[in-house]
Amino acid sequence: MTVEQNVLQQHSQKHQQTLLNQLREVTGTTDVQLLQQALQVSNGDLAEAVAFLTEKNTKVPQQEEATYYQTAQMGNDRYISVGSQADTNVIDLTGDDKDDLQRAIALSLEESNRAFRETGITDEEQAISRVLEASIAENKASLIRTHTEVWSDSPNPYDRKRQDNCPVGLKNVGNTCWFSAVIQSLFNLLEFQRLVLHYSPPARVQDLPRNQKEHRNLPFMQELRNLFSLMVGSKRKYVDPSRAVEILKDAFKSSESQQQDVSEFTHKLLDWLEDAFQMKAEEEREGEKTKNPMVELFYGRFLAVGVLEGKKFENTEMFGQYPLQVNGFKDLHECLEAAMVEGEIESLHSAENSAKSGQEHWFTELPPVLTFELSRFEFNQALGRPEKIHNKLEFPPILYMDRYMDRNRDITRIKREEIRRLKEHLTVLQQRLERYLSYGSGPKRFPLADVLQYAMEFASSKPVCTSPVEDIDTAAPPGGTVAQLPPAPRQESHLPLSPPPPPPLYSALSDQGPSGSPEGSATQAQQRVPIHKPFTQSRVPPDLPMHPAPRHITEEELRVLEGCLHRWRSEVENDTRDLQGSISRIHRTIELMYSDKSMMQVPYRLHAVLVHEGQANAGHYWAYIYDPHHRCWMKYNDISVTKSSWEELVRDSFGGYRNASAYCLMYINDKKPFLIEEEFDKETGQMLSGLDKLPPDLKEYVKEDNQLFERELEEWKAQQEKLSLAATAAARDPEYMEQPSPTDDSKRLQEDTERAISRAATEQDHKSPEALLSAAIKLEYTRLLRFAQEDTPPERDYRLQHVIVYFIQNQAPKKILERTLLMQFADRNLEFDERCKSIMNVARAKLDLIKPEEINMEEYEMWHQDYRTFRETTIFLMLGLELFLKKSFVEALMYLIYAYQYNKELLSKGPYRGHTEELIAHYRRDCLLKLNEHAAALFETGEEPEVNTGLNIMNELVVPCIPLLLVDEVEEKDIVAVEDMRNRWCSYLGQEMGSNLQEKLTDFLPKLLDCSTEIKSFHDPPKLPSYSTLELCERFGRVMASVSRTPADGR
Question: 507-513, long-range: CB within 8 Å, 24+ apart, which pairs?
Fold first, then answer.
């Protein structure tokens, strides 16, 4: 066999085995013979193979068979999935017709090899192209859509400018969040980053690639280098990876659309990189055994030690990404323990011959970058579709791999046996404890200590000598007579079994008894019984017993019983504490089993966590990556890169919370710092950063892109300066203080001013205009101060009536108040009589005498701008609530959104700068929920116009607003509302619907499930009408009064 044939065969083996692993994971079928049969029948098509197995499983019950494999040849340096081998080396001892099966496998491999030799591309690689082409098509389609897209670029380039040395994000070019998550995780491995940036293609293929693989891999490597260089030195906040995706699309021709599987993409990405580096390595060391840096970085080896039908075997296998099952395990170590041991392995530890079969895996060589694939998807045989596993799975920031190493095989086996013995003992103790904590023989069980306590409380209750129903007369007295005293010797009343009859009309009998005599009246009065009315009486009568009690018990009986119950309860509590203490000690012993120094010599630190949120059919991906230099976690969510925390990572990655969980963990060897070490200049010893890290060709590439972006920034700045100059007008005082024409506001303000002047003139007769001005200002300030100090309901907000009330409540500086009041009395509309005219002139003269250093005009303008914003916020809120109450939710949303945003900005400066935040938050949230419900109802109709209308509502209104609800994560109700909206749409996954609807849903869900809190695009605020102060106060008062009558969880 030639070298080329050997390589081709190895590639086909790996391709075949990858398909087997995927098919096993999706369908849950463990029978290898059946899996291979399905692949053969379907001619390698994964979807048809799943359908074949699903149909077969509905007819024939699946048999649980433990199938173990011999492993690949020792010299095979290619990737082989864990627990499997290259197909040509499989020796299947579980089937009956071995020859037929081997022929089928050989035929399948021959067909795959022939297709590979003709095109250089495997069937699996062709399947990947479908997704890549769909992503590019989606990106192109987004350029011609008229409605707002979630990930459209901001027109302002300053919004897209990189801040300092913040990491660069990647633009989602259409269902490519999986691409961003994987690329960012690899890019932040600085050793991997250096390998890619400094890669140069082999000289012999630079001009003319010799085969299809080189034609595909080398251009992709160049685009990956370009992308990495932009991520290093770009001045942009995020960069566009479309060209790298375009290369992948051009390499494989297909037209089908689905979201890419991340694990499969990572496999293929590393394969392509490995091939590219292999070509370079072979050229540099021609004739020598070459080392591939990708293999050195990501691949390791393990030893498979097993017994098959009494015969022992040992084989070495190579692995890349290590798959782990999640279902049934609570943490990563449990997953690893289960993956490392298969079947019944007692025979491995003894020299006796046994028919039992089993195998163990022991790592002989771990890669510097250790990647675990967490299998969070399983195939639901009943429903015929894959489902996501949302179970919680914990993983540590530091993972010690010593217990899984071959060199520690003997000590690990001893410890595993000790743990097994401790767990058996633990199970017995937990069963005993459960009998104490769940005591009883019926369906309801209680802690035994509580049962004894209740018995003691019952025995110690005050005895009663009557039945609980004897002293209750449930019949109405005949003839309207009052109830009679019961013959029982005790004056005690009990709860009636039914409401008592209405009391007699005492007023009609107050003058005479039944016989008309006064004596009858007195006797009747003595016989009246106080009747307890359970539905009208506010408290239970004092003589009504609260608990059942024994009828008869002697002091001696009570003393003996109390002594026994006390003693038994004490014994039970002591036994319970002893059991709980023993259980805790065993748990602690198990936890510390591998804590000695000898088992903590192989530390791996968590580098990246790739997270998926959604269901099996659709969802969103992002990554948490550790920054060792700043010692913090960073969240990479497409274009958004933000500082995070271990607590946020735990919440989103462990599972069991929302629909988000980790599907891939990337650990790095903590004793190999070169993986994350920065590069230093060999001459100066200075750390390289930015463009200095790049080779000359990439440095020029990034400089050109940065120059283009700087030109865009300059053009935008010049455009904005022109607009600013065009909009600049002469500075004038606030419109609510002075207006050139006598509008309603100025008339009202003028009337208030004249009233203050008249009162001042009455109190200060024959005084100078200056004294009158001072007195009038004092009177006006006193009036407004009284308003500011009054506690009023929201519908009567005095802040809207006068700016001074707003200033007083927010403790504006005295100089601001004085100038604002002077401006009120300097109004030219006061010129109607000589007295007001003279006071106006004095006020204007005082304004002219104020020196620039006496008052900060910027601060003065800032306070008046805040008041203008307060009035605008009020109008937004008023119109939004009016439309909401009219159920015009589409129109109401933008008013409520901007009311909340403006109000939040005001409240950041002080608690009385704006309106109640909880109120606006409630109606903003409720409006979004109602729009979501309306859009979902339109989608459910299945009619094309209604479906498009519903999705437009979601894309243009609801989805862009979701980051606003998540940005702070302080309002739990907002987070719950977002989850409700997402769950409503995710519930459609798996339901029967047309292909067109399914395609629309698959396209829409990633946008809805995007967890980024960055506002990527948004509507401009609605244009506000102008209102006089009187009209604004009246309308706002009416709508707030209506709201106060409406239940709101925000109030």
Answer: none
> What's the pLDDT at 524?
44
Q: 483-492 long-range CB contacts below 8 Å, 24 or more apart?
A: 483/528, 483/529, 483/531, 484/527, 484/529, 485/527, 485/529, 489/465, 490/464, 490/465, 490/466, 491/543, 492/464, 492/466, 492/543, 492/545
Q: How confident is the model at residue 1048 (pLDDT cuts 50, 70, 90)?
A: very low
- Domain containing 567 equals 406-463+546-598
Asked if 286 contacts 264 with a C-beta cutoff of 8 angstroms, the reply is: no
Question: Quick one: CA torsion of 754, 755, 761, 763, rounded to 10 degrees?
Answer: -160
**Residue where one domain finishes, among candidates 538, 572, 598:** 598
How far separated are the first and last CA of the chain, in Å rounded?
A: 80
User: CA 814, 817, 823 angle in degrees (round to 5)?
Assistant: 140
* Confidence class for position 510, pLDDT limits 50, 70, 90: very low
Q: What does the pLDDT read at residue 1017?
A: 57
Q: For position 602, what pLDDT does the model report?
A: 94
Looking at the DSSP bridge assignments, the partners of residue 627 are: 632
> Does residue 947 fall inside a structural domain?
no
Q: Distance between CA 907 and CA 756 in Å, rounded?
A: 33
Instruction: With CA atoms as reference, report the closest residue to 8 among 126, 122, 101.
Output: 122
Q: How many domains is the chain partitioned into structurally? A: 3
E strand or H helix at 700: helix 696-727
Q: Which two tokens stand for residue 976?
A: 């719950």
pLDDT band at 889 (very low <50, low <70, confident <90, very high): very high
If residue 372 lies in a helix (H) or strand (E), which one and from where to where?
A: strand 369-375
For residue 791, the SS3 value is coil
pLDDT bin (cut points 50, 70, 90) of residue 84 is very low
Percent of the chain with pLDDT over 90: 29
Higher pLDDT, residue 94 or 555: 555
User: Of 300, 415, 295, 306, nearest to 363 (Cα)?
Assistant: 300
> Which of 578, 598, 618 is a domain's end point?
598
The mean-pLDDT minimum among 106-110, 418-422, 553-557, 904-908 falls in 106-110
Strands 311-319 and 300-308: antiparallel
Q: For residue 131, what are the CA distances in angstroms to 125, 221, 990?
A: 11, 20, 20
Alpha helices in 479-535 (DSSP H): 518-526
Q: Per the domain annotation, does 902 fall within a domain?
A: no
Please spell the DSSP secondary structure of 295-329, one letter per residue.
HHHH-EEEEEEEEETTEEEEEEEEESSEEEE-TT-
Tokens representing 470 are: 């004897």
Which is it for strands 341-343 and 358-365: parallel, antiparallel or unpaired? antiparallel
The band of 937, judged by pLDDT with boundaries at 50, 70 and 90, is very high
Torsion-angle region of 43 (φ positive above 0: left; ψ -120 to 50: alpha; else: beta): left
Which residues are designated catalytic?
177, 612, 620
| pLDDT at residue 205, rounded to an integer | 58
Output DSSP code: residue 201.
Answer: -
- Output the CA–CA distances (angstroms, integers) from residue 1025 to 744, 873, 875, 1031, 1033, in the order listed: 15, 12, 8, 12, 14
Lowest-pLDDT range of 75-84, 417-426, 899-908, 1007-1016: 75-84
433-446 exposure pattern, b = at least 16 Cβ within 10 A, e = fewer = beebbebeeeeeee
Q: How many residues are present in the chain?
A: 1051
**Comparison of pLDDT for 202 and 532, the residue scoring more:** 202
Q: What is the CATH number of the domain that holds 39?
A: 1.10.8.10
Given pLDDT bands bounded at 50, 70 and 90, which one contains residue 54?
A: low
What is residue 244's three-state secondary structure?
A: helix
Query: Running DSSP on this structure, what letter comes out for residue 402?
Result: G
**Category of 564 on φ-ψ map: left (φ > 0), alpha (ψ -120 to 50) or beta:** alpha
Q: Is residue 840 part of a domain?
A: yes
Q: Pick the residue with more confidence: 495 or 559?
A: 559
CA distance readout (Å), 277 to 61, 270, 271, 445, 666 = 47, 10, 10, 66, 22
The reply to whether 790 falls in a domain is: yes
